[in-house]
Design brief:
heterodimer; A: about 450 residues; alpha/beta; Fumarate Reductase Iron-sulfur Protein, Chain B, domain 2; 5-stranded mixed sheet; 4-stranded parallel sheet; 10 strands; B: about 475 residues; alpha+beta; Uridine Diphospho-n-acetylenolpyruvylglucosamine Reductase, domain 3; Alpha-Beta Plaits; 8-stranded antiparallel sheet; 5-stranded antiparallel sheet; 16 helices; 22 strands
Chain lengths: ~450, ~475
């Protein structure tokens, strides 16, 4: 028999200087444990244990912030979180789970040492943050995919030996890097400071890292749709990876460095809206102001850029769409990327774009607001759990009997394609903007 | 070796390694439920897959004299699932199968881990036109097992009754591991109502592993209305008027001014600022005669100075009204560090007086309060925002709770309408029953659980010492509580 304690300590003692302790102190209200987040949490639905629910993870993070538990004690359970933020959408008390989660990841990143730190930085700083290196890697992977080497290695068992089995196969057939740029006619070169030139509206396209390397067709489609709607598209030089993956891995300094580069790059096109087609990048860039809030020289510039960021569906939703004319006779299910629906509150806009396409039948997918299990690099770190979450999505997709599933985020595009190939479904995975582009001759 | 070191390998042999949680982080998060109380870390958590596994766990616990706590979704607000001392928690997330639905017998059979809302969705998808009625505010999360343990109520219990009125039979694992069946599907059961004894016993008499419940046909018509009044008193009088006129609405929910303003921020209903109280009125039944019933309700509301009566025009509008009610607890928490939800009842005709009393008690202590009520039942839910970092305020809330309960009992009401006693109202139970009555109840408890292993140290007032620690009332006063 021991004491019944309080949910929160008698005094708000969280003396730590960790990111988590700061986030806890900054929070205006704390979780009341009502549990409304449980039924929307994909990992809770799979595992059925409290510590794999948002309520449980928040409790663990609160305890670390208050010095009641060690970071290492909670890292495993909190690390299972997809970061999909469905819990924030469901929370009636408005608890900002994501801010605690991000803070914890920062602290974990700071604590990462040795080989793990080196490996994370190799991928994040050495590859994703460097467009040329990324292009070289893509080129090498493309050769690997096309030369027969992939088939050879897969059958040799060497991949399993290296612990890479099932991982390298996630990549779609890769296009030639930057080939897409040849297909697109871009607007006035950067430096021309005007939002309108000769009556045409202007926007600047954010290309990102993975999107640029593996999904050039989506960028080409975006530019095509914008052009069809009288929007001139600029492609500012000097833009880089958005830094979201760096921040999620706790490499905050790298994330800030990339943010500064992007802010400078997009300042060259005045105040033209920054249009992007990757939900993850959009969610993160809209928060550049917070990321650089402590940097007096950059804070106002970061906030200004963040205010210009628009998902392409959001950008098109506020203007009258030039009616697309070419029929695209497909049954299409739309799957909400978490970073669009939960992080940015955008769910109607992409559906409206799809509905505008003549001949297209939009099918509502049950649990479309549930994470597909991609969650940035999550599917690499927790392949089994991600697989269970994905399998649930695939059951719904199989029942929907559609030709295409549309979603607006690179990780989701890859993850859904993986699930479809695993289940042997006959469904294409496309970005909504690609379908819309098809409808503009 | 600690008890945990002894028990965990044996539990793993019984259930498999992945069905036994014993890491520090996993044990830490079973110390709470949706109440304001936090207990101790637990010994371990098990996730059984069937009744036999539950029985094996309970037998093992009995051999080692370890208390067991059966836990649903942890949405109770009285601390009923909060562990006091080393305990083994039985988590039912893997026992969530609906075993049978028999529309001809009007019953369904299921395991305790089924979520209330999932059951309704399942029944709806079957297309028989049947549903399970009790709908606690937590229905999207809370489990049928938890609902049974706490005899959960809900918005529609005014007309259809609380959980106890819908449970036909139970399969229970007793404290010694024996599996027994009580009640059942047949219409009448001679002898004692053992099912009724178990429903609402908060897991203190055994572990429920299977539930047979009544399902009811969906009404032909449902009409949901929002009636606005200048003040709580007018709304409460309208409620009395409706009941006195012989009308039995499916639901009659009251929100006071402050509650409306808060809720509107999360679920936009458009409650006007000039209204002092709102009633959500739902009538259901045959389409024939519904118009007449609605007219009578409108007449009564108007006779009590209703400012406006609106009828929900679509399923979406109806859902928004109900969501605004269900989300109230969470929303109340968004404007303060936490919120203390209270539960008590008074005779229906004293509702306005009781709400005025609650406000007076809170005012006297400098506490804010917003009020919700299942008005038709006289079931009141004052919500008091609390900053527990403020020890004086936390202590004031504890005092206010006690005084509100005492007021309700003095008015002829009860210390709980639908959330049970748990650890929160153990002292207050003494306001309702004298020593003989309490001793009688405890004799029942001892008959079924002689060693006190099923969810121990709950419900009954604790006095003196338990183990080596002095036991008193659970409170919010900012210190550690015995």
């Amino acid at each position: 028999m021991t004491a019944i304690d309080l949910l929160l300590p008698a005094e708000p003692k969280a003396p730590g200087t960790s990111h988590l302790a700061q986030a806890w102190r900054n929070a205006t209200s704390h979780c009341i444990k009502c549990g409304f987040c449980l039924p929307v949490c994909p990992t809770y639905s799979v595992l059925g244990v409290e510590a794999a629910s948002p309520r449980g993870r928040l409790d663990l993070m609160d305890a670390v912030a208050q010095g009641r538990l060690a970071l290492g004690t909670v890292a495993g359970r909190v690390g299972q979180c997809l970061g999909c933020l469905a819990c924030e959408t469901a929370c009636p008390a408005g608890i900002r789970y994501g801010q605690m989660f991000e803070a914890l990841q920062c602290d974990m990143g700071t604590q990462r040492r040795g080989w793990r730190r080196w490996r994370a930085r190799l991928l994040l700083d050495g590859v994703l943050a460097r467009p040329r290196v990324l292009r070289a890697v893509v080129l090498a992977l493309r050769v690997y995919q096309r030369s027969g080497l992939q088939r050879l290695l897969r059958s040799s068992g060497l991949l399993r030996l290296l612990g890479l089995a099932g991982r390298e196969g996630r990549l779609p057939p890769l296009p030639r890097p930057l080939a897409w740029r040849a297909e697109v006619e871009f607007g006035a070169p950067p430096g021309t400071d005007a939002t309108t030139t000769g009556g045409a509206q202007r926007a600047a396209l954010f290309t990102g890292c993975v999107m640029d390397a593996a999904f050039g067709a989506v960028h080409a489609a975006t530019a095509h749709v914008l052009a069809a709607n009288g929007v001139q598209c600029a492609l500012p030089a000097g833009q880089r990876c958005c830094g979201a993956l760096h921040a999620h891995a706790g490499e905050t300094a790298s994330a800030r460095r990339l943010a500064r580069a992007n802010i400078a790059a997009f300042e060259t096109v005045g105040d033209a809206p920054v249009v992007l087609n990757s939900a993850g990048c959009g969610a993160f860039m809209k928060r550049y102001g917070t990321l650089l809030a402590d940097d007096p020289a950059w804070a106002p510039r970061a906030a200004a850029l963040a205010a210009r960021v628009r998902d392409v569906s959001e950008f098109l939703a506020v203007r009258t769409l030039v009616p697309p004319t070419r029929a695209v006779a497909l049954r299409v299910a739309y799957d909400d990327p978490c970073h669009l629906v939960h992080a940015q509150g955008i769910s109607r806009e992409p559906r409206d774009l799809l509905r505008a396409i003549p001949g297209l039948t939009l099918v509502e997918l049950p649990e479309s607001t549930w994470c597909c299990g991609s969650a940035g690099s999550y599917s690499l770190q927790h392949p089994e759990l991600a697989g269970d979450v994905l399998a649930r999505k695939m059951r719904h997709l199989a029942a929907a009997r559609v030709d295409v599933v549309a979603t607006g985020n690179p990780g989701c595009l890859l993850q859904l394609a993986l699930g479809i190939s695993r289940q042997g479904l006959d469904v294409d995975v496309r970005h909504p903007i690609e379908l819309l582009a098809q409808a503009y001759p | 070796m600690s008890k945990r070191q002894i028990l965990v390998p044996q539990l793993q042999r019984l259930l498999g390694a992945d069905a036994v949680l014993h890491a520090e982080a996993d044990r830490f998060v079973y110390a709470y439920d949706a109440s304001v109380f936090r207990g101790t870390d637990v010994l371990a958590v098990v996730l059984p897959a069937n009744t036999e596994q539950v029985a094996q766990v309970v037998r093992l616990a009995a051999r080692h004299d370890v208390p067991i706590i059966a836990r649903g979704a942890g949405t109770g607000i009285n601390g009923g699932a909060v562990p006091r001392g080393d305990a083994l928690v039985i988590e039912f997330s893997r026992m969530n199968r609906i075993l049978a639905v028999e529309p001809d017998n009007r019953l369904a059979v299921m395991e305790p881990g089924v979520v209330n809302q999932d059951l309704k969705a399942h029944l709806s998808a079957l297309g028989y036109g049947f549903t399970y009625v009790p709908d606690p505010g937590s229905q999207v999360v809370s489990t049928i097992g938890g609902n049974v343990g706490n005899n959960a109520g809900g918005m529609h219990c005014l007309k259809y009754g609380v959980t106890a009125n819908h449970i036909l039979g139970l399969q229970v694992v007793l404290a010694d591991g024996e599996v027994v069946e009580v009640g059942g599907g047949s219409a009448t059961r001679p002898g004692m109502d053992l099912t009724g004894l178990l429903v609402g016993s908060e897991g203190t008499l055994g572990v429920v592993t299977r539930i047979t419940m009544r399902i009811l046909p969906l009404p032909e018509t449902v009409v949901t209305q929002l009636a606005l009044f200048p003040d709580v008193s007018a709304a409460a009088n309208a409620v009395s008027g409706i009941m006195a006129a012989g009308i039995l609405p499916a639901a009659l929910e009251l929100l006071d001014r402050r509650m409306m303003a808060l809720v509107d921020r999360f679920v936009h209903v458009g409650y006007p600022e000039h209204a002092g109280a709102a009633l959500i009125i739902e009538l259901d039944g045959l389409a024939d005669g519904m118009d007449r019933e609605l007219r009578r309700v409108a007449e009564i509301c108007n006779a009590h100075a209703a400012l406006e009566i609106k009828t929900a025009q679509s399923a979406a509008e109806t859902e928004r009204l109900w969501l605004s009610r269900r989300a109230a607890y969470g929303v109340a928490a968004s404007f303060s560090p936490t919120v203390y939800v209270m539960d008590c009842t008074v005779p229906r005709n004293l509702l306005a007086q009781a709400i005025a009393g609650v406000i007076e008690i809170c005012d006297a202590r400098g506490l804010e309060v917003v009020n919700l009520a299942h008005a038709g039942d006289g079931n009141l839910h004052p919500l008091i925002p609390v900053d527990r970092a403020n020890a004086a305020q936390a202590a004031a809330a504890t005092e206010a709770h006690h005084e509100i309960m005492a007021m309700c009992v003095a008015m002829g009401g009860s210390i709980t309408g639908e959330h049970g006693v748990g650890v929160e109202k153990q002292q207050e139970l003494g306001l309702m029953y004298d020593a003989d009555e309490l001793a009688g109840m405890q004799a029942v408890k001892r008959a079924l659980d002689p060693d006190g292993r099923c969810n121990p140290h709950k419900i009954f007032p604790l006095r003196g010492n338990v183990g080596d620690i002095a036991v008193g009332a659970a409170s919010l006063d900012g210190g550690r509580l015995p």
